[in-house]
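Researcher: Structure prediction, please.
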Amino acid sequence: MASYLNNIVVAALLFPMLAALLSLPYAIYQYRRFGSISVWKTVLVFSFIFYLICAYFMVILPLPADRTAVYPGALHPQLDPLYAVRLAAPALERLNPLSAASWWAFLKNPTVYTTFFNVLLTLPFGVYLRYLFGRPWWQAVLAGFGLSLFFEVSQITGLFGLYLHPYRLFDVDDLITNTAGTLLGNLLALPLCRFLPSMDEVEEQAIDRGAAHTTFSRRLVAFAVDMAVTGAVLAVLRWALPGADHTAAGHIGLLMAATGVTFMLVPIVTRGQTVGHAIVRLRVVRPNGSSASWWSYIVRYGLLFWAFLLLPAWVAALFPSEASPVRMLGDEVSIGSEALMLVMLSVYGVWVITVLVRAVASAFHRPFVMLNGVISNTRVMSVAQADRLRAARHEATLDEELHELDIDPLGTDIDDAFDASFDSTSADEGVSFDAEEQGHI
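Model: Predicted structure follows.
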């Protein structure tokens, strides 16, 4: 039992690093597919990943210190099906159902508890397959067999060649018991699914949330992708212009060019989408959801990057010395680099605090709007949210037009207006029309 607990501890120590590596791809998939991230589904997905890590570590740990050691008990695979059942038969014959001591002795039999743990090892796998992925029992059997086969191949190959010889036994009974455990878990999940929200409902709610509100986290994912793209563009520019980064002006020019390509040129070509926006289905639009003009992208991101975020580079270029004299009201005062740095740190500190406050407010469905968005009259919205705003605006315009024409939007007056127009046209052309003779249109 202690070895099982140690394997779980090792998995728990490794899991945070693996979860951090998977967070960005998972967020991109969820935002692109559903428009928002469901907390409940996220807990299920990452708990499933943690379970798989634990299950695999149960199979391969502890690792031998000597990679060349030979383990005679693992050299020859056990290919006799149900061999464990025959080994456990004597213990089963000695079992007295009415005696607790007899049960304890039976469960302490190595063959018995090994078989029990093999079934228990993949039972959660069957539950996840049914509830999280909606897989029926026969697909669970195939998946359980495949997972168990992966475990056994890892053992017989010495962890895929990491060890020269197998250090654990390949046992065909493990394939049987692991597959049986998956099937049992899949069947046990049937009554459990009745008390838990279905994945279809969870995903539909995520789609509705993504179409109604664009979260700060979704924009942050897009921004992270765009900054990676900016880094790649900057690397290409430095390779193409190796001497440009040696001066302050050249350094600023490269940064402006890299951010200009990512945040201005690309949105102009794609009509409002950076690479990150396109990946998570966002778009820069006007507050009412309509398309923004090309120059608004330049104003929006020029204010953010070229003016605000590049301010330290501008200051370094304008005040290269330790103390630069500046005339104020006729008196000459000295502004040191430390004072300038303190002022900039204060400005950026206040800005970060305001961003955090607005990010928290965004979690409560308050729109996340920055000053550069207000000045450029642009917003970052999901494609679905922008489409919904445009549809609502067009619907309101149609209602106003129908109201001006004194037509009932429910359709009765439209039919009457059509009939009256048709009768008038027929009368002008001298055509008589009898609905009973002509039938229904």
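Model: The chain has 19 helices and four strands.
Researcher: Thanks, that helps.
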